[in-house]
TrEMBL record:
Protein name: CTCK domain-containing protein
InterPro entries, per the entry: Cys_knot_C (IPR006207), Cystine-knot_cytokine (IPR029034), Glyco_hormone_CN (IPR006208), Mucin_vWF_Thrombospondin_sf (IPR050780)
Coiled-coil regions, chain positions: none
Subcellular compartments: Secreted
Major localisation: secreted
Alphabetic keyword roster: Disulfide bond, Secreted
CTCK domain boundaries: 1-86
Disulfide pattern: C13-C62, C24-C78, C28-C80
Cellular-component GO terms for this entry: extracellular matrix; extracellular space
Species the sequence originates in: Paramormyrops kingsleyae
Origin superkingdom: Eukaryota
Amino acid sequence: MQKNITYLVHEGCQSTVPVEMTSCIGSCVTSSMYSAEANSMTHSCSCCRELESSQRQVEMQCPDGSKVTHSYVHVEACGCYVEECERTIRPPAQTAMYVFIFLF
């Protein structure tokens, strides 16, 4: 998990204190392998994402002098989330072939 301390800005208002922003960054296992049992390729896909998050609030100061409370998402835990792999099979790029015949 990556942590960053910053001021939040929302609709022109800025947090009165810096807040810790967290995000998920990392790599997870994705694979394609032949299965003799299925007699085909099997695919396993996963992505790095939040597994647990919470709502937090911060006071914000607006340009007109008013103060508002803003809610934001704070990531508590990250991990690899298993997803269904894209089923679209893209054919290999086709190369155009031109044949020129000259008759004399």
